[in-house]
């Protein structure tokens, strides 16, 4: 098993990747109870010609799986670590050594780390100002650590910013500024990025907008040609992407950085857990977005200059993402949690369908449902308990399982809990109301999932890193010899 995975990785290294859509990548988050094993995810990326990923941490299993894949990688420092990197150059040095340098030895061809993201949307309004005081110091210390490691020409320091960093002027239709309280930090950040030639990373969140803004038609978000245009800053907009992007351009220009490169760090459309979160709309949105990016038209303010890079949110569904901002948060994936494509879109693989993850190993074909022969007067309370720990987002209004009737919705909750707890018998008890079955209770629109098998032997240490390195060295030497 291990040998096969590693040999395939070696093989990947030797394939010269065909040219694909410039600058489109995916966010790869791992907040899942049963994540698809990293080597399978890397195969999924390769088989769909996806050549850029943005991570939310620097997980060693993930970085090892990306070794030799030729996929460009953004590693990230969580917000919780910003404080220590602001106060300690030493901490920054060891983070860079352990999470960047280690993977990039061998002339930088080992794991292609291109960016270190310092924090993840640290300016998000809901965080208050807790990260503001540490951000610039942390970014500077990481930059200095990269320089000491002689990696600063290959690896750029960036800070992914949330779209709520910006506000429209109260007074005009053309004025944009940073949120009050953010001005000083943002100017410092832009000065820092400018000095080091780093782009501005920003989230563009069209899906969140219609929930808040009335009177904008869904078509405006879906790149429909027939839409009623909106005017902003003396320009006319036919889709929300251009409008959001030029909002960012306007704010950067007003701050004195009119030519700063922009990377769209997160953009996507969820498929479940809310009204208008569906695979159909997500497909329309993604096709519209990718056609627009491929057209190279740019936006009214940056004509023929599309974003430097764009990272789709997200590669896979994650059943442990926070649902503070909505139940759709666990359904951003272009692929389901187990790597099955939800719709058709060209991420780099061309006109053919997306390739699904192969040889996914699942838990047994067993589900936990409610026992209809029992007195179910307390079942709803048990289901709510289950949902507090498991993932019931598909049951929410607009979700794929919203209209299944009682007590099927109780079964859905029981099953989610049971699967998340590795199908342990005691996790299908529910005071005697649970029943384990081998008959799939899924309905046409509502899937009762079985989780992925994630035994330690399967998901961890598939590949021993130093061993891979020496194998790589041997292979390269053999190749050199062979060419002579
Ligand atoms: C950030 O680090 C600098 C340099 O060590 C220190 O002077 C400053 O007080 C730190 N900021 C905070 C808010 O701790
Ligand atoms: C990265 O480096 C730090 C400091 O050496 C270490 O504590 C941490 O576990 C490493 N891994 C990740 C994923 O941050
Ligand atoms: C609002 O607009 C008026 C006229 O365009 C201008 O004189 C005024 O300074 C603006 N106020 C603010 C707060 O931008
Ligand atoms: C933000 O900072 C810039 C530069 O320091 C300044 O010109 C501008 O007036 C500030 N804007 C606000 C709203 O404070
Ligand atoms: C979903 O889209 C419809 C239009 O198709 C709109 O009327 C409705 O308000 C949207 N719902 C949400 C929650 O955005
Ligand atoms: C909403 O849009 C319609 C056109 O579709 C327009 O007539 C109406 O004035 C708008 N309402 C508001 C409050 O902007
Ligand atoms: C938007 O601008 C165009 C051209 O500048 C103008 O013809 C149109 O009437 C404007 N639309 C609105 C709703 O202001
Ligand atoms: C179910 O249990 C409740 C008490 O929890 C009781 O009131 C009800 O009569 C029982 N129903 C049946 C059909 O036994
Ligand atoms: C329902 O729960 C209550 C309180 O825990 C308990 O007294 C009652 O016996 C339960 N009913 C059934 C049918 O289990
Ligand atoms: C549930 O909703 C889907 C899609 O809206 C619909 O096709 C299906 O028939 C509904 N099922 C039931 C049982 O109402
Ligand atoms: C299941 O459906 C019933 C009836 O519609 C509802 O009262 C209950 O809250 C639902 N339970 C869950 C877990 O969605």
UniProtKB/TrEMBL annotation:
Q: Which Gene3D superfamilies match?
A: 1.20.58.1040, Glycosidases
Keyword check for Ribosomal protein? no
Give the signal peptide as a residue range, or say none if absent.
1-21
Give the bilayer topology.
Lipid-anchor; GPI-anchor
Q: Where in the cell is it found?
A: Cell membrane
* Keyword Disulfide bond in annotation: yes
Which ranges of the sequence are coiled-coil? none
Q: Which GO terms describe its biological process?
A: carbohydrate metabolic process; defense response
Q: Which E.C. number(s) belong to this protein?
A: 3.2.1.39
Q: Pfam families per the record?
A: Glyco_hydro_17, X8
Entry's family note = Belongs to the glycosyl hydrolase 17 family.
Name the chain's protein: glucan endo-1,3-beta-D-glucosidase
According to its UniProt entry, this protein's organism is Clitoria ternatea (Butterfly pea)
